[in-house]
Amino acid sequence: MRKTLPERYYLDHFHEFLRFFDGNNAPLLCPQSRKLIQQFRQLDADKQCIIARAANRKYALINRAHFDYNEIHAPQLQLDYLIESGWFAPAENVSMQDFAGVVTKNDLLAYLAAYPVKERLNQLKKAELVALLFEYIDVHGWPETLPRTDYLVKTFDRSLRYLLFLYFGNTKGRLNQFSMRDLGVMRTRADAATDQARFASLEDAQAAFYFASALDEMPYWNDTVLQQAGRADWPAFSEPASIAYAEKYLHKLGVRLLDSDRELALAVLEHAPGDAAREKWVRETFKDDKETARVALEAIIDNPGSDSLLAFAEDFYARKFHKKRTSALTDMLRSSSKTLQLDISQNQHVERGVIAWYKRRGVVAWRTENRLWRTLFGLTFWALLFEQDQLVTEFDRRPQSLKYNRFYDTFANDIESLLGGLHSSESLLQHVTKNAATHYGKVNSVFMWRANQLDTVRALLDNASFEAVKQLLKMMAQDYAGLSDGFPDIMVLENNQLRFEEIKAPGDVLRRNQLTSIQRMQRAGFDVHITQVDWFSDPTQPYVVVDIETTGGNNGYHRITEVGMVKMVAGKVVDSWQSLINPQRHIPSSITRLTGISDSMVADAPLFSEVADAIDTFTEDCVFVAHNVNFDYGFIKQEFSRLEREFKRPKLCTVVQMRRTYPGLPSYSLASLTKYFDIGMERHHRAMSDAQAAGQLLNLVHERLFAQQAG
């Protein structure tokens, strides 16, 4: 049943939003935001509706012509009153950011046409067009083509944005999230929200808001504004929230300033908190003053702020001052890597291809990457993360301690007690299984729920060193921001020995976060390798050549009537599978004339749901091949989707491959190619016959490729 909202739902939501500031967040209100709440509550309901409607708009600029709502009595008169009362003002006072959010690029081009513009406008981005328009407005005034009487600026917008920032903890939160919650579109965590202050103090909240807002506005700043920002007196930042936003803002500001005022840029980066700014400052300082950079690097090495910053400092110091010729990333690739030759057909799903390669050799492997470790971390520490460290509002996803990377600092005793009370892999598995069963499906920002959630966790705990697992969990607790991603792609169990592998296809590079995560895993006691893949045409790669017949060409509406598949290894058919399918709809007469398949033929045939398991098993670990592969693959994928199941296979198209290996033929249709190469067909447009023919085309492709490879 479709949910509906009451007539003035947005006003109810606005009152709910404001009640948040009657509790423990009241001390975070600045005088302007406190005044906004007080004055709003003194208005009558119609005027409150206008304010609430305007508050739901993303930008400070609104078009009053869009406010003729039926549930509001005389809305334009209400707007006139609110203009006189100072709630709205003429559009001349709008910021570039808000103006850009409301007007289109075509609008901007039309407005700029009123001025003697010399710039080539079509080459400019929207933000650049807005900045240029405001430059002309400063000199020539507003263009007559701009309907200023329709546009109004919310004078309360800055105070409203501050309130939204306090409520949501970021500048992206919007009041329409209340509506999405009530409609069931957005899932929230009302069970975990408590009345607690989001920021440590008013000063902390205002500083965080200053830096967060400036980050949003920065794309619209020209060099003059950037330089003014670089010389401004920034708010003090001493608490986790304001420090986190200051890190992002000052790093970005310093980088932007490098092109226009290098000296100022270096000063900003030098005084900015955070690893990113420190690293950038060292790199840029090295270009001008190597001795200062050397001293700074030695200081970082002696007292590093994080493992990531230490890795940078040691690597940069060795290469720039000890003449080391290769980076730590290169060294890692060389020292701990092996090379695996994989069939070129796997180039879109390389990790899946490596797992299948191992499986064909009797070795078990799992796709893990970040998913395994985030799941284990979240389920191990669930009570601390989502019960003790409760959310500020139901819309929050990430607990405060993770958001500001202070999980261990906040819960050190509880974390040590929990880990100390777990004495074996079995006890840890029992602990996470209990939490998974209790909290399955609950919204969280650490991991995504899915079927078979604990399969890889169980495989890890069954085969890894328990002490290594505990050590890594503690590392994640101590620095979740630095150790929540970059984990190796797969986990491999071979000869009863567990290892992790980071898979690198040709052209892939090892990123810094991956290096750091691998080093920490090795420090904890895990065996971690890098597997580099070389592409080639592998004659032992299994292929399943597929052809389907359908009721029509649109896989969103039409259905499959027949599936034919042949499995091929080293050019030979090793298995086959074929079945008519009941499409549960009429087969058009034109399709029957083409394929020979009629309604009566499929009346007693199985439904797709009844053969889905067989198709899934038959095609597992194979390359999916078809003539115009996207047609056949798309239909089968759609059928699995209707069953709420995933179907993913690497694909190969015999049309594309024949064009590449046998260029210049008059036609590449299946009928034409079979005739040209004298390939026999029992019946064109029947699934098994067409699949067998496409299989012979695949052999022709491989013969040409293997010949080129050998030559």
Count of strand segments: 13
Structural class by sheet pairing and helices: alpha/beta
What amount of the residues lies in strands? 5-15%
Rounded mean pLDDT score:
91
As residue ranges, the low-confidence spans are none
Figure out the total of helices. 33
Instruction: State the distance separating the first and last CA atoms.
Output: 66 Å
Shape: globular
Strand order of the largest sheet: 4-8-7-6-5
Radius of gyration: 31 Å
Helix content: 40-55%
Could you give a short account of the major beta sheet?
A: 5 strands, mixed
Task: Provide a descriptive summary of the structure in words.
By secondary structure, this protein is an alpha/beta fold. The protein contains 33 helices and 13 strands. The chain has a five-stranded mixed beta sheet. A five-stranded mixed beta sheet has the order 11-10-9-12-13. It has a three-stranded antiparallel beta sheet with strand order 1-3-2. α10 runs parallel beside α12 and α12 runs parallel beside α14. It is globular, with a radius of gyration of 31 Å. The N and C termini lie far apart (66 Å). The model has no long low-confidence stretch (mean pLDDT 91).
Descriptive keywords:
five-stranded mixed beta sheet, 13 strands, 52% helix, alpha/beta, single chain, 33 helices
Write the layout of secondary structure elements.
Blueprint: H1 9-19, H2 31-42, H3 45-55, E1 61-63, H4 75-84, E2 88-90, H5 96-102, H6 105-112, H7 126-140, E3 151-154, H8 157-168, H9 176-182, H10 202-217, H11 223-231, H12 240-257, H13 262-271, H14 275-288, H15 290-302, H16 307-321, H17 328-335, E4 337-343, H18 350-360, E5 364-367, H19 369-380, H20 382-388, H21 400-403, H22 407-420, H23 425-439, H24 455-463, H25 466-478, E6 490-494, E7 497-504, H26 512-524, E8 528-536, E9 543-550, E10 560-569, E11 572-580, H27 589-595, H28 599-602, H29 608-619, E12 623-626, H30 629-642, E13 651-653, H31 654-661, H32 670-676, H33 687-710
Parallel strand pairs: 4-8, 7-8, 9-12, 12-13
Antiparallel strand pairs: 1-3, 2-3, 5-6, 6-7, 9-10, 10-11
